[in-house]
Amino acid sequence: MDLGIKGKSALVMASSKGLGKAVAKELVREGANVMLCGRNEHTLLETRDEIIQEGTGKVEKVVCDLSQAKDRQELFEATMAVFGKIDLLVTNTGGPSPGQFEKFDMDDWKGFYNDIFLSAADMIKMVVPGMKQRQFGRVLTITSVSSKQPVDNLITSNVTRSSLLGLVKSLSNELAPHGITVNNIMPGYTLTDRLQQLMAGNPQLDQIKESIPMKRFGTVEEFAAAAVFLLSERASYITGQSLAVDGGVIKGY
């Protein structure tokens, strides 16, 4: 199936590793030009060199801290300078700290909100004018199954990531007349470095796996395939949706 992505320009936030890296790699395989970003230059260089072998698309990188407004602006400007446009935007961030409610003070919550919600909203605000001008665009936010079904000991993720669902649904209605789709994708237990950190030394690992209807953890490749479809021309009539890639973990409809 031709996804119609070849030649499109994509910005994938937090893409030096994990889910962001997997999505970037899949986009390059489909022929898209991709801007990578992350905080560690060495990791970014390794990722760029790895991904550039995957397809015909150009791959560039910018070192930045997505929690900083100045860095986000510089990332946008660098991407525009290299590619001239941003057709596809994938918002992504690292997960907030685990813990229960009383562990965190108000400054912690402001930081989580800035990192998870404001970083995404800010970047979306930058790319939308160009997408409207071209009457085409794809915006995809990466959140978590915690957006729909709270995860124990991850109240920070449960709260902040769910705020993006309201943004996605509202924006999808505003931008649909301009040929721009806005969707959300929710990974479940996927074999990333973060999952392995959370599970390290956890005696309930087998129990968690058994709680997944598919009885296994997902792979980053499975997640990326779903994400890239939502970014494609083939998904032109899908907007305002939250897709769980979770092996059936979410129990609600």
TrEMBL record:
InterPro entries assigned to the protein according to its UniProt record, in alphabetical order:
NAD(P)-bd_dom_sf, SDR, SDR_fam
* Similarity remark: Belongs to the short-chain dehydrogenases/reductases (SDR) family.
Q: What is this protein called?
A: SDR family oxidoreductase
- What is the species listed in this Swiss-Prot or TrEMBL entry? Fontibacter flavus
Q: What lineage, starting at the top, does this entry show?
A: Bacteria, Pseudomonadati, Bacteroidota, Cytophagia, Cytophagales
